[in-house]
Amino acid sequence: MQAFDQIQELWQKHEVEVKFSADEMLQQAKKEVSGLKIKSALNIVGMLASFIAIAGVWLFYEYESWTSHAGFVIFLVSILSSTIILYRDYKLISRNDFTVHPKEFLAGLKTYQVNRYRLYNQMYWFYTTALSLGFIFTFIEILPRLTLFQQIFAVALTFLWILFCSTLLRTAVMKREKERIALLIEKFERITDQISTGA
């Protein structure tokens, strides 16, 4: 047993220095940026699909109350404004190639990081409030048509979904994305340092 402890102690003292070339780091970082671009593009497509679906429900079903129309307008305006913000952020990370314009790319990535933080902390609450208001306005006309059980189920499901997205899901996504972008920025800064020092 003592021999095992000595081997374990020797192993813990032994440090292996792993060096990556700038090209290897650049390829890995580019792959991660590509994943970030794809995720951003899918977010935009998802928002556009929800915009079309909600607009379709509004146009193809008859609503009598002005509150329903107001609710749908609120839905569509909040989705469209969020989609525009997502598209603007997407352009920040897809506009420049790191190999051609490293400083501009890094500046765009840092701006993207700040915008995402603002999106999850400020704009998200605007979006959630707008959707909640849209639901309240549309429920004024829709709920009386449902049975008591359906009314309770619709309101509870809507409330729980908004609560889940506003707390657990938002926090998890924000934390993961914050770490991912910070790591990307750090990698690109190290690559820039290695290239500039000729390592």
Please provide a brief summary of the model.
This protein is mainly α and 199 residues long.
List keywords for this structure.
86% helix, 5 helices, 199 residues, mainly alpha, 0% strand
User: What is the count of structural domains?
Assistant: 1
Number of strands: 0
Helix content: over 70%
C-alpha end-to-end distance: 45 Å
Number of H- or I-type helical stretches: 5
Instruction: Summarize the helix and strand pattern as letters.
Output: HHHHH
Q: Major sheet, described briefly?
A: none
The overall pLDDT, averaged over residues, is 81
C-alpha geometry: elongated
Beta fraction: under 5%
Describe the fold and architecture.
Keywords: Membrane, Transmembrane, Transmembrane helix. The chain is mostly helical. It has one domain. The chain is built from 5 helices and no strands. The longest helix has 50 residues. The chain is elongated and about 70 Å long. The protein starts with a helix and ends with a helix. About 3% of the residues have low confidence.
Task: Describe the secondary structure blueprint for this structure.
Elements (H helix, E strand, L loop, with lengths): L1 H12 L8 H39 L5 H29 L7 H41 L5 H50 L2
Helix pairs in contact: 2-3, 2-5, 3-4, 4-5
Keywords: Membrane, Transmembrane, Transmembrane helix
